[in-house]
Write a structure and sequence with these properties.
The structure is a single chain. This protein is mainly α. It contains three helices and two strands. Helix 1 runs antiparallel to helix 3. The longest helix is centred in the C-terminal third of the chain and has 24 residues. The radius of gyration is 15 Å and the shape is globular.
């Protein structure tokens, strides 16, 4: 993982496949695996469950695109 830019509004990072999978799997576990009521979720994660799920969808979709590009280039996934 490389942090490429930091501003007051955004942090831009480059993620390797393993980095992206780690974030995806952690978010999936906390959003779907571990039972936390909505108040505990927000307290522990610092964001609403819906926001975490939106981030999970974005990461998951990005991983799918990354995998497709990797395979199209003849690289192992």
């Amino acid at each position: 993982m490389d942090v490429t830019r930091i501003t007051a509004d955004v942090i831009t990072v480059d993620l390797s496949p393993d980095d992206a999978l780690a974030i995806n799997n952690a978010l999936n576990e906390v959003c779907n695996g571990i039972h936390l009521d909505d108040r505990d979720f927000q307290t522990r994660m610092g964001v609403e469950r819906d926001h975490a799920r939106a981030v999970l969808r974005a990461i998951n979709n990005s991983i799918s695109l990354m995998k497709d590009q990797c395979l199209a280039e003849g690289k192992e996934w």
